[in-house]
Structures are given as structure tokens and as C-alpha cells.
Write a structure and sequence with these properties.
Elements: E1 10-14, H1 17-25, E2 30-33, E3 36-37, H2 38-50, E4 54-58, E5 62-63, H3 69-78, E6 83-86, H4 89-97, E7 101-107, H5 111-119, E8 128-132, H6 137-147, E9 152-155, H7 161-169, E10 174-177, H8 180-186
Parallel strand pairs: 1-2, 1-10, 2-4, 3-5, 4-6, 6-7, 7-8, 8-9, 9-10
Helix pairs in contact: 5-6, 7-8
Amino acid sequence: MRTPGVMGVMLPAVRDGASLNQALDLGYRQVLLERGSLLAIVGPLAGAARRGVAIFVNLDAVEGLAPDSAALAFLATDLGFSGVLSVKPHLLQDASRFRLRTIQRIHALDSTGLETGLHSLVSPAPYAIAIAPAVAIPQVMPIIRSITDTPVWGTGFISSAEQAGEALRAGAAVVSSARLEVWRDFNRTPVS
């Protein structure tokens, strides 16, 4: 069974069972396994996916996954996860074969990194591109939009609901944060 895509604009970044439970207790229906050990949390994640929670996995930072087709097939077929995030275009191309939603992370630490990342977008086009750090989105969105209309996710350095709102107002479709206080505060902070 495939789980749905992202249903809201906040994507909690979880790292263990405790943070997964906190996100689910707050009513979130999507999470990003950003770091940590897949083995330590695979049961609760698979259970959440069976209940319709969209699970995205950072292939570059989660332990216990080889960067190969067998790992992608396991995530898609055996666990029912929704998608994967990576800076590696070849992994994303392979992931699309398994009908996983692909999110290509681009490090926008300077203009060269941003432009190099944008020009390396995979084909077929990714489901979204993730700009890191997310706090750069207000400055880099005009450059992104001059090259692609792919949805933009903001990941990294979101430490307040206000920062999340700034990224969304600048054009991000989704923002991700690992901070529980941001998840709690986010729904009380108007985006517009």
C-alpha cells in the first residue's frame, strides 16, 4: 500500500521513536526521517505508514540503508514509505522506478552551490527540491523560479514558526524542522 504525499506545509524531521510519537501525537500525517538508525525505528515507521502517514527518508543521513536498488525496493515495497530525499541524482532516478516520490536536496550555501544543484536536477523531474538551509529561501527563490517550477521544500535551520512562515511566504511549499517547539507553535502562527 502506498502512503499519500505531503498533506500540509510542516514536515516534522524525526530521528527516533520518541520524536516520531511526538509528531504523530500533534496530529501530523507526514514525517521526514532525517537522521538516525532505520533499524531502531523501522517498526513504528512501518506501522505509521500502514495507517496512512507519509514517510520520507533522507537516504544520505539515515543509517542502515545501502545506496542501492535493494534498499529502495525495501522502502517502497516492504515498508510502504512515500518518498526519499538525497543530493545524489542517480539514487533519485533509481527511486522513481519504485514509484517513490523523489526530493532532490540542494545546498544553497552560496550561489555556485545553488546553481550547480539546480542544473543537476534529475530526469524525470523530482517531486520536489529541498533547499538547505531553509532560511535562505527568501533570498534564493527568484533564482530557483528562473530555472524550474518544481515545488520547493525548505530543510535545515528552521528554529521558529516565524522562520517557517517566512520560507512559506517566499514560495516554499513545505518546510521541515526537527524542533518540537516549532511543530507545536507552527499551527498558531499565520503564514500569510
